[in-house]
Write a structure and sequence with these properties.
Length: about 450
């Protein structure tokens, strides 16, 4: 049986579980809590609204208020007016309730396997396993069944919106031409967005000339290794000052006017993926790599392609998920001990169409693999073999072979702009559609949330 991992843009819907989980606040926010029965009769729960035939209670509203306040506190955002926040949350719950009712009436269903996969994706985003995820959920006061019900609702909403909203959105060739013309006229640094990674060879304040020279030689060697194609994140871990090692040395995507002038000047003529000369600052010597670069509002005109190979085992009545994982772990031990060849194992055991090529999946652009597969692959260094990974297709063992930076062709650039414009139009279409569904529902407001 051949299992295809690559998805066309028209089938990206199948990979939206992770993105939707994040968009709906399912990335295990700190302090996530479940409805708690009031112990004081004076504060007993009560109905605040009726939506068609279903109710929304004060407990539901208060739970969402707590979640939003915890997230805002974690992001150091100012505390909002509670009455206004409660009103906004109640309106959001009303809209969600109307959409869930429509989804169920339309016959849309969510399989248990889709919920399992969403939980796995959330765990992976938080770099924990599912068992640890569930322990944290329960520690925050939510039962496993309540958490799964929340996941089911969010997937149900996404499927409804994919069915009813996505077909409304069209992006014409004229839309793309107009957008490109507008963006190409932008030249100021406030619109130029750059994400740089750097290796810092720190120079002590009272360093002697000999020390400075020695440190500059270290920086020169770091630059040469980076330009030779060594994994930059590993070089940061090995060579950079500890103060500059967080986030693999990346400064984060920001406009050029928010970066040190000497960093902007050193990388001004560099394309995405290229490495600068050694730069001297008051802190020491820097080696800079351009991770992404482009005008704000424009998709990247170059991408990082990955070439990986994998072994796929499909759990069945004969081979359980646990057995498939154990078998792949054994393969990994053999590979690490030099007792086996990855391509040979893939040809013999992989249950994917790539088996005849030794599991080789070829060069792939970002987004070509399902999210759960791609997230693990992106964390690998060239030559590294992953732990067994469960995707919607089965259990994988992945080896990253190499990475490269490539410029997008003109046709690919236009498709990237089309996707960007589509997302913008989709947001507006979703807003209008939500208003339509809200206006059609019977809503009776009872006592305000307290």
């Amino acid at each position: 049986m051949t299992v295809r991992l690559k998805f066309l843009s028209s089938a990206v819907v199948a990979g939206l579980l992770v993105a939707q989980a994040q968009a709906q606040g399912l990335r295990l926010p700190p302090g996530t809590s479940a409805p708690v029965a009031a112990s004081n009769p004076a504060t007993a729960d009560f109905i605040v609204a009726i939506v068609n035939s279903e109710t929304i209670t004060n407990t539901e509203v208060q739970r969402e208020i707590r979640r939003v306040l915890q997230q805002m506190a974690a992001q150091n955002r100012p505390r909002p007016d509670i009455q206004r926040l409660a009103a906004d949350i109640l309106e959001s719950l009303i809209s969600q309730k109307t959409q869930l009712q429509l989804a169920r009436e339309s016959g849309i269903r969510v399989e248990d396997s889709a919920i399992d996969l969403a939980a796995q994706n959330i765990a992976a985003q938080n770099q924990i396993d599912v068992a640890t995820l569930m322990r944290r959920v329960e520690a925050d006061g939510m039962t496993a069944s309540q958490f799964r019900a929340q996941l089911r609702d969010q997937i149900l909403l996404q499927r409804l919106r994919d069915r009813d909203v996505a077909p409304r959105v069209r992006v014409s060739e004229l839309d793309i031409d107009t957008y490109l013309q507008e963006q190409q006229s932008v030249q100021d640094l406030g619109k130029l967005e750059i994400n740089l990674a750097h290796i810092l060879i720190a120079v002590p304040e009272n360093a002697s000339a000999e020390q400075v020279q020695s440190l500059q030689l270290r920086a020169d060697k770091a630059m040469q290794r980076a330009r030779a194609g060594e994994n930059f994140a590993l070089l940061v871990r090995e060579l950079s000052d500890p103060s500059a090692q967080s986030n693999s040395g990346q400064l984060g995507l920001r406009t050029a006017d928010r970066l040190p002038t000497l960093f902007v000047e050193a990388t001004q003529k560099l394309a995405q993926g290229e490495v600068s000369e050694v730069v001297r600052s008051p802190a020491g010597f820097h080696v800079l790599k351009v991770i992404t670069k482009g005008n704000a509002g424009m998709p990247a005109m170059a991408v990082t392609q990955s070439r990986a190979r994998h072994i796929l085992l499909v759990p069945s009545a004969q081979v359980s998920e646990a057995q498939a994982r154990t078998r792949l772990l054994d393969f990994k031990k053999q590979l690490q001990a030099g007792q086996a060849d990855f391509a040979a194992l893939a040809r013999e055991f992989s249950q994917d169409g790539s088996a005849t090529q030794g599991g080789d999946l070829g060069w792939a652009n970002p987004g070509m693999f399902v999210p759960e597969f791609e997230a693990v692959m992106n964390r690998l260094a060239p030559g590294e073999v992953s732990e067994p990974l469960l995707s919607r297709f089965g259990m994988h063992l992945i080896q990253l072979m190499e990475r490269r930076q490539v410029s997008l062709s003109q046709a690919e650039q236009r498709e990237a702009v089309r996707a960007l414009l589509r997302e913008k139009k989709l947001d507006e279409a979703l807003r209008l559609w939500t208003q339509e569904q809200r206006s059609r529902a019977y809503v009776e407001l009872r006592q305000p949330p307290q």
